[in-house]
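=== Per-residue structure ===
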Amino acid sequence: MSDSLSSRAVLEGFRAVDSATVSNAIEAFQVRDRTQGYASLDLRCLTPELPPLVGYAVTCRADSTTPGPRRPNRLNDLLDALVRAPKPAVIVVQAVGPDRLRSCLVGDMISAAYQKLGASGVVTDGGIRDLAGIRRRAPGFHVFAPGMVVSHGNAAILEANVPVSVCGLDVRPGDLLHGDANGLVLVPASLAAAVLDRARKTLDEENQFFDFLGGPAYSFEGLKRLLGG
């Protein structure tokens, strides 16, 4: 999306469409296998009350569960990458320590800092904490994670602006992400405007389907035709 005004309009448009519909729309372009491009059910939207998350990935690998002296923290590298990244940004954190289920890589302070620098949310396959604080201190900030862990442990950013893999989804810096209570999907950025248009048409088609189910034209044979049987 080369034109900044049209880019902003497309991003805003995506916030009015759910992620499942976006995923369906992407299928129409046959740019990847239908089993690719989305995160597993390990990744949960912990802020489902918000409109969908939309933004460009700023990535890192982090560790909070290696015992002993804290490893060198490259948080400043991540913050520099966030400042340079297109907005809105999404911080994507892959947990690479020895015990992912006990990791904790996001809390209220860092979430508020990320938001201040232009991030609209964070996605991680590790744990988070201070969810109530995130809602209070960074209102509107999305959080996607498997769950919560009470301690930040030995947290350190190890690498920033590198390819990562989070809950089965491979993410590169700059990838366009869309997420809500249905899950997280990667949108081909070069097709974003076309995907949004297809998603809106998909919503119209679904509305027509439900109108058929509840309307006088309903028939069993018609239902089978609509479902492709």
Q: What stands out?
A: The domain at 4-209 is CATH 3.50.30.40 (Glucose Oxidase; domain 1).
